[in-house]
Design a protein that fits this description.
Helices cover 36% and strands 15% of the residues. α9 crosses α11 and α9 packs across α12. It has 464 residues and is α/β, with parallel strands linked by helices. It is globular and about 70 Å long. The strands form two sheets. Strands 1-3-2-6-8-7-12-13-11-9-10 form an eleven-stranded mixed beta sheet, sandwiched between helices. The longest helix is centred in the C-terminal third of the chain and has 24 residues. The protein has a domain of 303 residues: Amidase signature (AS) domain (Amidase signature (AS) enzymes, Alpha-Beta Complex).
Length: 464
């Protein structure tokens, strides 16, 4: 039987030894409080987890990696956190992330950047980069992230681990500080598919506190990890994703080799084209910016957020609090969101984006009636250098290109590692399935993992 106290002590020691280089955590809790806040038994009693800093943990800071919430202590546990604690999970700290989960590189955190454990001159991805880096480096067994556009699958792929974004409504959003309310989902990072499924089995399910939470039945997802694929499995390869301009040749090669492994396992490969995928990044930008402008309006120094004490009147409170305590990327997206929602432009931008989103749902749902899962890249390139897109924000925004369709349509998607570049950077692919097909995605992902070695490799560049 695993000694919980020793497990916690080991994880804390790993963070103390290595995280000054990686910057994956904003805070690691003391051992006694970690042990006291979770059940001594349960299906996750042997598991350490790091929690992204936009998910509420009772009595802990929940800053969203922003100065505006630097002093905010969560007064309750998110439903996902409550379920993990009851299952015995050992929640060791708060993961760094892009400010308010806004970004694709974990460079916009108000506190520190998170580095990729495979190459510390490169990003870990974002916005859940701290969660991904900590798992990839072996500092914790698993971690929670959130995804609005690409914030689980992209950092998982860039760090060489497994990342699951569940069906919208599969995991309660109660206690998740919102970025885009029609897009956000809490998901899991892990080194193995089975561990990912174990955590998802505990978190998933209806929650009366969340009006968007689904009553669709849940499963013990780890039972789906049999090592074999579904008989007659049909994998739909999205050709207009795989053949997109700008794809790194090494990424393309690894993805083609992954498809060959699936053929060896007995899967049928079906090639198809989904035209709306080419509109997904633009649609995602419009909708997500509109929703973040609405959701972040509450952080004004009056209702929520640290107040500028030097302000002389109410207008200065609003102006100074938001201009001084929000970072540049957050302010940029709020301004874009207010623009696309403004009088005279809402019809031209936001409403049209919603209409295209509806068409995208129809197209993807129709495709998933003819194939069991969809196969696509996660990122066109491996982990990029720190500050690579500082002067080209559009290229940073386009990191959502392959991931946005699943978030816009609400379907589940999982990122699986499938190889490395010649310079040693991880590469991953994603599988997308019909609504509430998490078990099928775990089964299909595990079957590939079971015959490949990629999940067993460990990075070393972060070690002092």
């Amino acid at each position: 039987m695993v000694n919980r106290r020793e497990k916690v002590a080991h994880s804390i020691a790993q963070f103390a030894q290595h995280d000054s280089v990686l910057g994956s955590a904003l805070e690691i809790f003391d051992a006694e409080s970690i042990l006291q806040t979770s059940s001594e038994s349960g299906p996750l009693a042997d598991m350490t987890l790091l929690v992204k800093d936009n998910i509420c943990q009772n009595g802990r800071i929940a800053s969203c990696a922003s100065k505006i919430l630097e002093q905010y202590k969560a007064p309750y546990d998110a439903t996902a956190i409550d379920r993990l604690k009851n299952a015995g999970a050992l929640l060791v700290g708060r993961a760094n992330c892009d400010e308010f989960a806004i970004g694709s590189s974990t460079e916009t955190s108000a506190y520190q950047m998170t580095l990729n454990p495979w190459d510390t001159s490169r990003v870990a991805g974002g916005s859940s980069g701290g969660s991904a880096a900590a798992v990839a480096a072996g500092l914790v067994d698993c971690a929670l992230g959130t995804e609005t556009g690409n914030s689980i699958r992209q950092p998982a792929s860039l760090c060489g681990i497994v990342g699951m974004r569940p069906t919208y409504g599969r995991v309660s959003r109660y206690g998740l500080i919102a970025y885009g309310s029609s897009l956000d989902q809490i998901g899991v990072f892990s080194r193995s598919v089975v561990d990912n499924a174990r955590v998802m089995s505990v978190m998933a399910g209806h929650d009366a506190h969340d009006a968007t939470s689904s009553k669709h039945p849940t499963e013990m997802y780890e039972k789906a990890c049999s090592g074999t694929i579904k008989p007659g499995l049909r994998i739909g390869v999205i050709d207009n994703a795989l053949n997109t301009a700008g794809m790194d040749p090494e990424v393309t090669t690894c993805l083609q080799e992954a498809l060959q492994e699936y053929q060896k396992l007995g899967a049928e490969i079906v090639h198809l084209t989904l035209p709306t995928m080419e509109d997904s990044a633009a649609v995602y930008i419009m909708i997500s910016r509109a929703e973040v402008a609405s959701n972040l309006a509450r952080f004004d120094g009056i209702r929520y957020g640290t107040r500028d004490d030097k302000a002389r009147d109410l207008v200065e409170v609003y102006r100074n609090t938001r201009s001084h305590l929000f970072g540049k990327e957050v302010k940029r997206r709020i301004m874009i969101g207010n623009y696309v929602l403004s009088a005279g432009y809402a019809d031209q931008y936001y409403k049209k984006a919603c209409a295209v989103r509806a068409g995208m749902r129809e197209e993807f749902f129709a495709a998933l009636k003819n194939v069991d899962v969809l196969f696509a890249p996660v990122s066109p390139i491996p982990a990029f250098k720190l500050h690579a897109f500082d002067q080209d924000r559009l290229q940073m925004d386009l990191q959502d290109y392959f991931s946005a369709p699943a978030t816009l349509t609400g379907i589940p998607a999982i990122a699986i590692p499938c190889g490395f570049t010649q310079s040693g950077l991880p590469i991953g692919f994603q599988l997308m399935g019909p609504l509430f097909s998490e078990a099928l995605l775990y089964q299909t992902g595990y079957a590939y993992e079971n015959v490949t070695p990629w999940h067993t490799y460990m990075p070393t560049s972060y070690k002092k």
